[in-house]
Amino acid sequence: MGAEAPTAADATRDQLVTHLRADAAAHDADLFDAIGRRFDDVARRFPRAVGPGIGRLRVALTFWDGWIDARNNGWPDGPIHRSAWAGLARGVAADLEADREIADPLVRERFDVAANTCLNDRMRALTVRLRDR
Per UniProt, which keywords does this protein have (predicted)? Predict the structure, then answer.
């Protein structure tokens, strides 16, 4: 028997891993304008499926959106300091690559709409848009 063909969720996971790591490197190099350049493409192609693993992909995409929003708004004071975003992104990428739940409690608390219904309007709208696809 041959290997199973990659799914849309697999492709999205791989894209998120690649782009989160690239954006973390850009962040470390103070190339903040590079963060999120591929976000719209990944969001547009986000899988319509439901099932195992889709929730963590939503968390990762919502995290990425929050990072972009923080950058766009001058790194406002809050629970995630500007210097922490790149490390968090690498952790999210590692969790996705290992096909495990997002481990960082701050990321889960701030970007998992299933666990936190008090997300800001922007993140709630993104999550609803992804869920309704």
Answer: Plasmid
